[in-house]
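@channel sequence for tomorrow's demo:
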Amino acid sequence: MGAQGDRIFAAVSQRGFPDPWSTFGECLSWEAAYAVQLKQAIDDARKGNDEQINGTIDELFKRKADNLLTARRLLDDVLAEYDQTGMWRLLDERAAKLDIDDVSERWGRGLVEHPFPR
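structure tokens (generated this afternoon):
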């Protein structure tokens, strides 16, 4: 089991994720990273009143908001393009050919391996 998933992972390993999904995934990774950084900065701020920490928190919230806006715009563009070009139909046809149990077996192992961007 997992042979189809192994082939998908091998292709991604060899070629990378195609854009725009690679860029969208990067935005989601940064979203998680900003949440972790904000939690740490807020913990630090609770320990004392330091203007530098408050400035850091403000900057992290700004970066987080900008990042989410970038992701939203990217997603809006892709959804519209996929609707216009018929890409959803093509992807549905390809997905219908997959053995979901087989793919899921391999896919589940990879989910815990994704690091935050540094």
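heads up for whoever presents: Residues 51-85 form the longest helix (35 residues).
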